[in-house]
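Chain A, query sequence.
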Amino acid sequence: MSDDRIHVPTADLTPEQTKLGAKLDKRRRIVDAVWARLSLVRLLLAAVGVAWLFALPHPALWKQTFIDEHALSPAQVTVYYDWAQVFRADRYLAEVEALRDANATWAERRDFLAASLRSAGVSAENTTSSVFARVTPPRSEGTEAILVSANWLSRNGEVNVRGVALLLSLAEFLRGQNFWAFDIFLVSGDGYLDGLNDFTEHYAPRANIWTALNIDYPYHSFSHLGVFFEGTNGRLPNQDAVNSVLHVAKYGVWVDTTIHDLDERPQANYAFGAKALLDHFKYMALGRPSAAHGLLAQHRIDAVTLYGVPGEGPHGFHTMGRVVESTLRAYNNLLERLHASFFFYLLPHPDYFLPVGHYLPAAVLLGASVTLGGFDCPDPLAGALWALPAFALGLLGWLTQSSLVSAGAMILPKPKGDARASLASLAHLFYGALIPTLAMVNFPQAVLLAALVILALAPLPRPVRASLVFLHPAVLEYYGGINLRAEWEQFGNVAWPAIFAIWVPLQAVSDMLA
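Chain A, predicted structure.
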């Protein structure tokens, strides 16, 4: 930096002015020293940010989970789902298995589900690919509701035979009780996600649905209960909804719980925390729901999936039914929507969580490292003009609905001199500001963006930057079976439009600067 200071004879200055001048000189020397070592400062910030990420699975950063909404009072009631209900569920199970073995069509399954619900004494209706019943208790005013669902297919691709059977057994069971203050919707849909999505699209809000449970129980017994909570676009249910399920299972029904479908029993150590958080990031980074409940997040419904992790016992209908009933009883105590607890959190363990203040600094540090690379911008206007082709390429991709347009970045013109430096600076400023902003909404997605930006804009060897191709949407679809376009069209996953607004321009700028 040039020394453009104006030197004034010290004899003409008062003592206060001399003291102030010395302070300003000291600040300038500090700024000059930092500026001269800016690359080192950026590297240090990025290193600390990465180290913070790797520290998140350590129990020292965790906090004990708790129920913030006292009205819930989970596991504080007597539950009535007993062996008579298990016998009823077993009868439904035999019929569901017969439909599965006969490879029944949706029309046949729809007729069976509707007939079973009507025989239980509740009215049943259907949409194109779902069947639902509405249980209206005497005390309910019909303005608020709880939803319980069990889709035909489990998240592992098998038929959700016991989940559907348990759902059907709940119809008569819930209808015969008079302490419910909410209407209760029982929904069973075709496929894994399609049926429940069809219900939400066609449901006329006769009652506002506040909370929901999705039952995923495909095997004859389960060893422990897995809890899935991630929703579409990284939306999470209020943490009290998740904590209530975990509290009921642990203290009310005495069944072990785990995060997702991790096989081993949860341990409060780094290894388990790393596995749970990596699984969490896998869903959140691409905005994908971890189970069928995730579709309800966009409708402001706090929903959780209960997954019976397949195993040779010791738990079955009796355990799952009591967990469902006791959790519904807790949700039934609500006087207003859940709002007191956290909506932004990470769960490394069923009994512990990471609040936003414990993980957000990692994204802030990574974003700051990128942003500092944009402070030297000799010609902002030229840089902005050179950025237009990159964003035009993204617009072309959106109009054609093809991510393959990113290959066109190789033929874009390459700026030189001040224009090149300005384009690089503006890219650092834009993406550097975007990283911490996104982290406030979807932290795993912000971490993914930070990794992409650093790989694309840092002065790394070309083969390292070429590794971005492995995250190309076409590669994800072909090798990983992840069709983001279909998820955007069906469930509103904004990762697909973000590819054209964020990723394609980034790839184009990277190629223009190479």
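Residues 417-439 form the longest helix (23 residues). The longest strand covers residues 208-216.
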